[in-house]
Amino acid sequence: xxxxxxxxxxxxxxxxxxxxxxxxxxxxxxxxxxxxxxxxxxxxxxxxxxxxxxxxxxxxxxxxxxxxxxxxxxxxxxxxxxxxxxxxxxxxxxxxxxxxxxxxxxxxxxxxxxxxxxxxxxxxxxxxxxxxxxxxxxxxxxxxxxxxxxxxxxxxxxxxxxxxxxxxxxxxxxxxxxxxxxxxxxxxxxxxxxxxxxxxxxxxxxxxxxxxxxxxxxxxxxxxxxxxxxxxxxxxxxxxxxxxxxxxxxxxxxxx
Length: 256
Ligand code: OAD
Fold this sequence. Notes:
With about 260 residues, this protein is α/β, with parallel strands linked by helices.
């Protein structure tokens, strides 16, 4: 076992409160593109200001809706990968475990993770653009009779367009989720940071909150991120390789 792995095992074995922050990189090995990877990232190919803001939706609801329908199609065949599975396994070993994700797919749930805080919404869910019955007013699009080629369906309560339940640029995060994420980060003894560029706040502030409260930070990302300068350990590898190895090492240590 190399030294970094040994240190990570010791930190996790001694911790009661562990928090994990995940980003798009954790789902990359499931075939879902990230946002900022050169060439393959979504924002390398599409302009987020035209597709991921409330103004863009007001301007061209069909363009924005069709973009999210396209992303749903890309995600449809995706299955949890060994990184998602390893994080679900880790949760079962730790007394107080919180998984904070920026991802809008459902792969953490499907891998068996339980205590999940979603900061940026859930792409398979939809809501009324006007939040006519309160924020959020979820709409079951599958239950609506509609022409799929016609763009966004309309809210059965008020007639406004239906939009994906995603936090767009310029919008606030769900307040309860954010405050739970901040509290968990402040209380963490160890935080794992997996597959995020650390470019989008307030999610990217969470490692700083944890660090300031004395947590050890362990990063899993093949490339350096904006968070790398403050981490204690950086595993510069794909999460689907490094996280299962960590779980195996934890199990071996327990067996010693
Ligand atoms: P980014 O696309 O900004 O960053 C993905 C990170 O994953 C990069 O640092 C990659 O190096 C890393 N990565 C790539 N492959 C990996 C692998 N196999 N294992 C581990 N890491 C890998 O994605 P996020 O940081 O999640 O917002 O982006 C934050 C937010 O920006 C997203 O939630 C999204 C976007 O606009 C919303 O949807 C609201």
